[in-house]
Amino acid sequence: MRKGFTLIELLVVIAIIAILAAILFPVFAQAREKARQTVCASNLKQLGIAQQMYLQDFDEQFFVRPRNNSIPNRYWQEDWWPFLLIPYLR
Fold first, then answer.
1. In contact, 83 and 71? CB cutoff 8 Å
2. Distance between CA 86 and CA 51 in Å, rounded?
3. Of 2-11, 28-37, 51-60, 63-72, which gets the smallest average pLDDT?
4. Phi then psi for 13, rounded to 5 degrees?
5. Can you tell me whether residue 56 is helix, strand or coil?
6. Which H/E stretch holds residue 13?
7. Most distant CA pair in the chain: distance in Å?
8. What's the pLDDT at 45?
């Protein structure tokens, strides 16, 4: 008697692995999407907290230029608001 696997046995094992992979791939994709959602929610929360901290420091006025001149002049006119929050973000 020879030792080894027949072609049918190998095909059955490959078919079982393919079925398991087809079942598990959507689960992994769903978990990855949930992780992205969690990261996004965390980032939005951090931005909200940074905005609240900024507002507390500047008498509840969002459009006040900081006194320490930490924002370069070239950014003050266009796309300026992210630079207001940089000192408050981790």
1. yes
2. 10
3. 63-72
4. -65, -45
5. helix
6. helix 7-57
7. 89
8. 95
8 A C-beta contact, residue 52 and residue 60: no
Q: 0.85 exceeded by the pTM?
A: no
Q: Are 54 and 47 in contact (CB under 8 A)?
A: no
Among 54, 40, 45, smallest CA distance to 82 is for 54
Residue 71, φ and ψ in degrees, nearest 5: -105, 120
What is the count of structural domains for the chain? 1
**What tokens were used for 6?**
């027949």
Structure token pair of residue 36: 């992205």
Full residue range of the structural domain in which residue 28 is found: 24-88
